[in-house]
């Protein structure tokens, strides 16, 4: 099987999903029954790493497919086109607030347990997915339930600000995030429980949050919240 045919088979197996395309490409390259491609372990690790780089660089499965085909035929990602748009993601973040009286608010944040920004404080939140049916409010409701165990009504969410622009996320892709705030009642405080990417839930005064120590660009969200809740 020639390289072009091998990769086209990987594209078909991936069914348009870039993540699956990585797996399918590796399976096609490393597990040929006729032994037409032979890679030692170090080469396999190197190729897997380069495929991972490509997955974050290209916006569509088609662009990624073209890039990986060139990787197979030219042997390096250095010569790959760089003018293709990076992937764009839309996400929702949720600031959970509790009014303790006298215009003083506590905020509930998560301490991240995931690999990215591990251990840092952040708002509950995450990417919009197919489950949300194209609605970013649905993303906010789903994420705060998954990460804090908090069931909220979309109608109670207040739009605070939008995070966007390059460099705000260390994962390197373009992530635009909508920050909402929700105020909870005393009975809901005891129900909060860390889940999903949240290692723990941290409660503190909104005025005392160390904004410069927040994950991603969430420190800007803390400053925006203080304009509304002081």
In short:
By secondary structure, this protein is an alpha+beta fold. It has helices spanning 3-14, 18-30, 41-57, 61-74, 136-148, 186-189, 218-228; strands at 88-101, 104-112, 121-122, 124-127, 158-163, 174-183, 198-205. Helix 1 (3-14) runs antiparallel to helix 4, helix 2 runs antiparallel to helix 3 and helix 3 (41-57) runs antiparallel to helix 4 (61-74).
Polypeptide structure, described:
The protein has 230 residues and is α+β, with helices and mostly antiparallel strands. The chain folds into 2 domains: 3-74; 88-228, Nucleoside Triphosphate Pyrophosphohydrolase (Alpha-Beta Complex), CATH 3.90.79. 37% of the residues lie in helices and 23% in strands. Strands 1, 2, 3, 4, 5, 6 and 7 form a 7-stranded mixed beta sheet that branches. Helix 1 runs antiparallel to helix 4 (61-74). The longest helix is centred in the first third of the chain and has 17 residues, at 41-57.
Strand content: 15-25%
Count of separate structural domains:
2
Under CATH, the homologous superfamily of the largest domain reads Nucleoside Triphosphate Pyrophosphohydrolase
CATH structural class of the largest domain: Alpha Beta
Rg, please?
22 Å
Helix content: 25-40%
The helix/strand order is HHHHEEEEHEEHEH
Identify the overall geometry.
elongated
Distance between the termini: 67 Å
E-strand count: 7
The total of helices stands at 7
Tell me the CATH topology of the largest domain: Nucleoside Triphosphate Pyrophosphohydrolase
């Amino acid at each position: 099987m020639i390289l072009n045919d091998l990769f086209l088979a990987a594209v078909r197996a991936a069914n348009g999903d870039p993540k699956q395309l990585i797996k399918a490409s590796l399976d096609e390259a490393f597990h040929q029954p006729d032994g037409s491609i032979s890679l030692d372990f170090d080469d396999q690790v190197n190729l897997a790493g380069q495929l991972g780089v490509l997955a974050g660089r290209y916006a569509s499965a088609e662009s990624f497919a073209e890039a990986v085909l060139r990787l197979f035929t030219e042997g390096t990602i250095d010569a790959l086109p760089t003018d293709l748009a990076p992937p764009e993601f839309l996400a929702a973040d949720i600031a959970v607030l509790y009014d303790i009286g006298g215009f003083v608010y506590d905020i509930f944040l998560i301490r991240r347990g995931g690999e990215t920004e591990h251990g840092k404080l952040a708002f509950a939140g995450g990417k919009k997915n197919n489950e949300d049916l194209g609605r970013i409010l649905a993303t906010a409701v789903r994420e705060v339930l998954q990460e804090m165990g908090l069931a909220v009504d979309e109608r109670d969410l207040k739009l605070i600000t939008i995070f966007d622009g390059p460099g705000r996320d260390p994962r390197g892709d373009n992530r635009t995030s909508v920050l909402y705030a929700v105020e909870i009642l005393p009975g809901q405080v005891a129900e909060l429980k860390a889940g999903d990417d949240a290692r723990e839930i941290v409660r503190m005064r909104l005025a005392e949050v160390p904004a410069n120590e927040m994950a991603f660009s969430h420190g800007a969200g803390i400053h925006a919240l203080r304009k509304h809740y002081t």
